[in-house]
Amino acid sequence: xxxxxxxxxxxxxxxxxxxxxxxxxxxxxxxxxxxxxxxxxxxxxxxxxxxxxxxxxxxxxxxxxxxxxxxxxxxxxxxxx
Length: 81
Hints:
Membrane topology: Single-pass membrane protein
Strand content: 5-15%
Cofactor: [2Fe-2S] cluster
Organism: Culex pipiens pipiens (Northern house mosquito)
Number of helices: 1
Shape: elongated
Oligomer: single chain
Strand order of the largest sheet: 1-2
Largest sheet: 2 strands, antiparallel
Number of strands: 2
Low-confidence stretches: none
CATH architecture of the domain at 40-81: 3-Layer(aba) Sandwich
């Protein structure tokens, strides 16, 4: 028996990192988007899996199915007058 079996503190800890792909070398990922560039409506990714970052590409759907999660985008739209 190894030392790791009876000593959970010695076991490697799983990564708690959520973002594993979007600019991982940066200390904090920040994107600025002018409201004038959005048009009427835009969906922004919150799952960190979009290939079209920072916009949502629907990747959360596969994640939700696999992990039984409930992630979705944040949708920004212009106020209707």
